[in-house]
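Researcher: I'd like a structural prediction for the single chain below. Treat it as a standalone chain; there are no partners to consider.
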Amino acid sequence: MGADDESSSRRLALIRFVRSLDEDATLAFPDKVNKLWLLLAAAKNTRLHGVEESVLRWLFKQMSGNAEGAELARRYPLSWTIISHIIPQIPPQSLGRSLAYLRFISILHQTLEDVNRAQRRPPGISEDINGVDTGDESANGTRKRKRDDAFPTGIDQLRTPEGCIKSATEVFRALGSLLDQGEHLAATGAPEKRVGAEHIKSLFSSSSDESRDVTARLLLICDRSLSVLEHGIGQDQASWVGILTAIWNLRLHNKEDNLEFARHLYEPVSSIISRVKGIAGTAPVAASNTVRDLWVRQLEQFLSTCFIRPTRQKYIIDEDVEVLRTALNVAGRNLTGSVIILWDVAARSPRDPSDPKSKAEHSFWIQGVFRVLLEVIKPLEPVAPNDILVRLLDIAIDTSSVPSTATLRAITRENTLGSDETDWSLISKVVSCDADVFLMDENIIEDVFSRISSQKEEDSKTRDEIVTKIIMPLETAFAKARDLSGFIQKWYELLCKSPEHSLNQTIWFDPKIRQQLGNILQSALTSTQLLRVLERLDSSSDNRGALLVVLDGICGGITEEDFIQSVDSKIFSMVYDGKTYEGVSPDVLSLRWRISSRMASWETSDDIYRLWGEIKSDMKKIIKKASLSDPETFAAFSCCLHLWLANYPGGKHETDIAKLTCSFLERLISAIRTDGNPHAFEHYINLVFRRVPKLAELPKQEANGVSDLIANLFWHVGQQLAAKDELQRHNPLQLLLHNFDVKDEETLIDALISQPLNVLDSNDDQSGWVRPESLSVLSILLDFPSEAFTKGRRKRIMSSWKKWRSVITTHALQDSQYAATVLRLLIRINQQPTFYESMEFDDLVHISLSIIKHDKTLLPFVEKLVELVLRHMVANVEGPSRAYLAQASSFAKKLETKKPEDTTAQILLMKGLVFALNNAPSTKSYSSVINLEEIIQKLDEMMQRSLSEFTSESEDPAAFAEDDTKLLLLSVTMSAAACVRETRPGRSIKLPNKALRQLDAISTAYVSRELDIVWKLRTFLVRNFRDRYNVKTFSLQLGQATTKVDEDLIYDLVAAFSHASNRDTIHQLLKELVSGSKLTSGPIGPLLAVRKLVELQQGSHISPSQNEEQVLDFAALHEQLIPLLSRSDSLRHFKHISDILLLLLEKHANSMTQFSIETTLSTIVDVCSSRGPKIEEAKAAGEIYDKLYKLVAVVLKRHRLRLRGHFPVLIVALQSLLGTLLADPSSFATDRSSRSEPPWLISRLQARHAERFTRLLTLICEPSAASVARGRSNGLDSATDAAKRAAGQDMFTILELYIKLQLEVNVLRDIRKALEPGVHAILDITPQGYRRVLNESLDANGRAVFRQMFTDYKKFGKWTGV
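Model: Treating it as a single chain, here is the predicted structure.
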């Protein structure tokens, strides 16, 4: 009763104040409005609405007139805030009549006119009024404002640009509330409410001029806000465009709407779009991506629907585009942006693929639009039209809306070839649009080619643009026009115009032109046609260099036998018969050797001999004497290798070519050794490592020499790169070591690996392990694949290491990089069992004690090495292993921790022994050599001593948080404790209470550093001292786990707590985590704990010794978790919550209730709606959809029987999933009320998600017997058949939605293909009567889609029994 009395008193105070509004002259208007707002916000809404109507009348009375007080009332933002607050509280019919009577539209028109008249800030006015109110809204719509966010009250402040934006924000909010009221009421079924909605809508349709002016002024406000708002448009402005669009759509339509739009609305619309998108040289305005994209989508849709489409329809009938000229003339201040936007929207206007006339009409339409745009931009400065044309043609290419060939030809002549300056960007766009512009006009293409040839000194970017975007596309266009021979002739003529000595400097020498010719040659010409081309070139071969360039391109494309037989002899005669190449540049001369290389791969034996006889003298001269930096030298050497391969095996000239190759390799090795920079010879090195290894297989004496030369080259290159520390960034050695011809050639492998091994085995006074070049030697050995380390080589390396162990360790202590490299090599060697001379356990002791003490970062390497060696030792306890384990046992027995710095290494060794012995094969017996229990006992004592000493020294835990030495010791101790626990689950470590408190404090001190050791330590404490932790403290610890923590560590911690707790404690912990933690955001620990606990639960079966209170209610747990799915704030939280729900539905299926199944499906609907989780992370859309699929799939597999009689719930979930699958977030929203896509759908789903949805359909239409079978069956009717019949009564609605969505959105081809099996599955189970119902529920377009769908089903999807 007290609450009701308080509510009544607040309502009564509001009534009294409203009655005294006109009587009290002591209060100024802002003070009255502020007090009125406070009373309205505090009063409870009732069915009576007289007070609200009185407030509305008073406010509009104050706003009427031209006096300054009326302007203050209209400008004051809180006035419109009150209006937006009371609009939902007045019945629609009364509201519509009141607003019409109070001349709402006129006052709105006057208010917008005031707001659009901003003045500069007068002196003395503070600047703290900029920005827009972002007050929160409570659940009942009451807006709570902070005191320091008050609106400006003076008329001068309200007239400033910032004050105007504040007023506009509240005006938009009031209009949005009014329009939402009309939309909501129109959607309800009550007739009186629909009538009220029409009353509200009629406010904006009484006069088309008023609606036009209101919309135009709202657009101007949007445009000016882009300059005024300090932080750009945000969520407060997100609905503005939707509101003004809705007002324009409610206008009284007439045939002049198109012209009115052009005169009054097009300019602000184009201005806003160009400023938001940064068109026409302006930087994009500041705005959140979501709001900016929303504005652009809605404005472009507004422009397309209300202006472009009507203009297009009129143009198709009478070819009238005057309205476009009007719009562009009005928008003359922003002509560049308005032209680009108009073309963009016009070119993207939708086409009907089912209408055969649509394509022709669209082409007709865009030709007319483009002509108008050309007329408009023609008077601009000489450079500006070209820049605009480049943008327009870019859009034309992107939208497949290309202007006519005649139009493009005119652009080319006037805008690119009409002056001395050449706009290559515009030419490239014309080529991309329609290459026929050049192919069909000889004058134009000659002019373009001439200008290309005259470009002598252009930067590389321009040169590359000319080649890739002009010459190569034209080359392809000639091929498509079946005139590739014409291009080859023109290319040759252009090359001939350049002097031979500088031919390589012309743009026509670019290798990409030759490569493109090779790619299209055989598909564009027949062998006969190609022969004719060669004959024509041969008859006019005045320029030998130009001929080589063209022939190189032609030879690069010849691969088929027919072509080779036809042109082989002709090319040979063109290159060699009576030809001399004096005066030709080396770059061009190298092409002769490239041509010869390709001919060597074509020829038969006799032709090879002829080719060798023709070129051997020149080749020998070049290979023996020419500079290695000369491109002709490289080409000649490559040709030499091709000839050797062509003579393989046993060719007539094989010996001569092999000797020539070996002599060149000797030159190359000498040059690399002298120069010291392998990068200068990289192309030679790559060629040798890629091609020469195959020649090392030859059964000739020269093969051994080749292997040695390859090994020498490998050795010198590896040494020099390793010395410069470049093996990791650039390693050509891998090219050789992973060459297929090397892997199976043991002779070559031995030659390659022998040199580094010989260095390590050096018997000089100084060990080969510690020489200055030793690091490079070790790095080279690490590059070899594991297969290269045979048993003998492994033993050799380890024996050498054993011999120089002390020296190696001393050097390693001085160089951490060297130490890491040695350890990596030892790990690589010990990947397989390796027994070497004088092998003993002391080797591991030596490594552990010395290396770890020096560099703590090397601990993982040492730990891995210890694990590998001991694992091999316990695998076979005979022979050397027996003595080795005996030494390990002796070490353990004598072990005494005298030096604290040795503790880490000793614990590591003991842990390795325990792990290896515990995991030894059961058939092996080691008990006679070493006692596992003794090792565990020793390790236990060491851990206790280590922890005790650690805690005794750590009086101040925070002071030791940065001590890496103690951190490392603690980490190793925790790993050892986990190993002991795994080996002997019942064993625990005893520590005094003081030590436990200290360890707990240490974990708290380390938690801020987000180290893994924190959770390892806590797991250790929980396992060994469970009584110290209750549910409250444990849940608090879990709350400290951020999203950066390793999930497995949290799972281990929870598992340790669960194994040491009884069922009641686990249930209490689950309840505490679910009810006391925020599982949708923040720390991930509680959520991971819930998941692990659910995994560990064995089900809800009640044993005779239990009562119902001892059993966890999994259905209640599901009920608590399922609402969290749609409220998740991050993708990671969403995935874990869905995984928990999957566990409950799958593992604890018998505990789920009917309510559990229905809430799961209804939550999926919520997630797929606009109420879904606001997750905007990369790849979120696909992963969320996958999780929703799994939830529905587990319901169908495990709970199919619960859907009987409740199938509509499943249908709604499937419809939501289908709508989300086909939704396109980048498409235009048709109106304000239709934006129902979920917030997480920031990118379109792919075909793999369609396959998931198809799987759901097949699970329904083709159920497994296990999912639908009951305990009893009458034997007369199959359970699967009954399930199919039941599903067939509802599943056709999914098909109906799919057909309608295909008419509304563009369904991608691969998605449609992936959905076909699901469509066929639905048609399989849908009776004929329901198919008729489906057909009748569709319109004409839908029936056409269904007709084609059913035809495909009968053709491909329906089983006929054949």
